[in-house]
Amino acid sequence: MWNVARAAWRLGQMRRFSVAIPGPCLVHKRGTDILHDPWFNKDTAFPLTERDRLGLRGLLPPRIISFEQQYDRFMESYRSLEHNTRNEHLNVVSLAKWRILNRLHDRNETLYYRVLIDNIKDFAPVIYTPTVGLVCQNYGGLFRRPRGMYFSAKDKGEMMSMIYNWPAQQVDMIVLTDGSRILGLGDLGVQGIGIPIGKLDMYVAAAGINPQRILPVMLDVGTNNKKLLEDSLYLGLRQPRLEGDEYLSIVDEFMEAAFSRWPKAVVQFEDFQMKWAFETLQRYRNKFCMFNDDIQGTAGVALAGLLGAVRAQGRPIEDFVNQKIVVVGAGSAGIGVLSMAKQAISKIHGNSENMTSFNQFWLLDKDGLITKDRADLDPAAAPFARGSGPGEIEDLAEGASLLEVVQKVKPHVLLGLSGVGGIFDEQVNSTENPCFI
């Protein structure tokens, strides 16, 4: 079978996959098993020689339609869908676009990824943000064909054998979620599987990762979303979320199983609620090849932007240590950005011993400015809580509003990392301060 190899060859002028496909694919299937496998199915593009050799003659219409013709036909159908739904509600249009792409994904993965790669600007918002949030919310009703793997609390003690149910002999990239904090939507339980699926499709289409070596994974430890627990279409465990050691034992078992089979894989933790995001990062970062996208991925991109902003102002990079930074959002993304920014300042400053009291950061959450006077101060936010003494602003108390903070601090940088809408209102935006938003 040449379908995957041929597609990779045709795309060679645009991009080389991170793991090259060296030659023809060996197919150990025949007949309808091939037509039902999206990796090998080429729909009506099978030539007569392959139809004879693979037991497909008579199982397909006689006309041979080439890969290129199928591509054009799909794009024509997609454009027709756009035209026919132009007056519909945005959510209806978004889900219709996702469905037509998902049906192609279920049927012919070679053509699917070719379509994504060639039209990434148009299709990225469909397969990932913002449509993926809508897909996750409605996943029970949209589900047609399983994709990825599901490990639940009921599978405790069985994960080491379960991991071998995945057909790929090699996996390079695993995106893992427990569905506890999906985008700004909160706990969506097993329906959060849409995030790993969409993220990995982006990695294939935009970063050239070999699509045969990716694995989306849902770790279902229950849900505290009452609406889902009462939903007859909900596909996950109908129980409250595990907590404490019970929760960690499930994650431990999965990590051991995954790296036992694929010791060179990378595991990306995605959309875990903050307490588990930080806990699991510290628990596994020195033992397995893993990272947390919300903490480290967002922070890496944000830090690049912060350093780039200093250069754009014509200042030396060392001036970053003097930047006053206000961050709105005290979740894993906000604290992750501040932690990485603090590390960068320590390295630039060159004297980490004296950096413990150095605080150029102001952190706010839904309750306003976070200070050391806050009751039940989150340990993750504690290093960035304002106190008293040198460097503090008078009359800027616990819970101060964003407008107060901006007016009194006069920050160089204002970062929004909160899922709460309407925070940067007209008053904040019109404040005459050198803020970069």
Features:
alpha/beta, five-stranded parallel beta sheet, about 425 residues, 18 helices, single chain, disordered N terminus, Rossmann fold, Malic_NAD-bd, 9 strands, four-stranded mixed beta sheet
- CATH fold descriptor of the domain at 133-288: Rossmann fold
Radius of gyration from CA coordinates: 25 Å
In DSSP terms, counting alpha (H) and pi (I) runs of 4 or more, how many helices? Answer: 18
Overall shape: globular
CATH class of the domain at 133-288: Alpha Beta
Order of strands, widest sheet: 1-3-2-4-5
Structural class: alpha/beta
Largest sheet: 5 strands, parallel
Distance between the termini: 51 Å
Brief sketch in words of this structure:
The protein contains 18 helices and 9 strands. With 437 residues, it is of the alpha/beta class. Helix 5 (90-107) packs across helix 6 (109-118), helix 6 (109-118) packs across helix 11 and helix 15 (293-312) crosses helix 16 (332-349).
Give structural notes.
A hairpin with a 2-residue loop joins strand 7 and strand 8. It contains 18 helices and 9 strands. Among the domains are: 156 residues, 3-Layer(aba) Sandwich (Rossmann fold), CATH 3.40.50.10380; 140 residues, NAD(P)-binding Rossmann-like Domain (Rossmann fold, 3-Layer(aba) Sandwich). The chain is an alpha/beta fold. A 5-stranded parallel beta sheet has the order 1-3-2-4-5. The N terminus is likely disordered. Helix 5 crosses helix 6, helix 6 crosses helix 11 and helix 15 crosses helix 16. It is globular, with a radius of gyration of 25 Å. This is Malic enzyme. Pfam families: malic, Malic_M. InterPro entries: Aminoacid_DH-like_N_sf (IPR046346), Malic_enzyme_CS (IPR015884), Malic_N_dom (IPR012301), Malic_N_dom_sf (IPR037062), Malic_NAD-bd (IPR012302), Malic_OxRdtase (IPR001891), NAD(P)-bd_dom_sf (IPR036291). GO terms for molecular function: malate dehydrogenase (decarboxylating) (NAD+) activity; metal ion binding; NAD binding. Keywords: Metal-binding, Oxidoreductase.
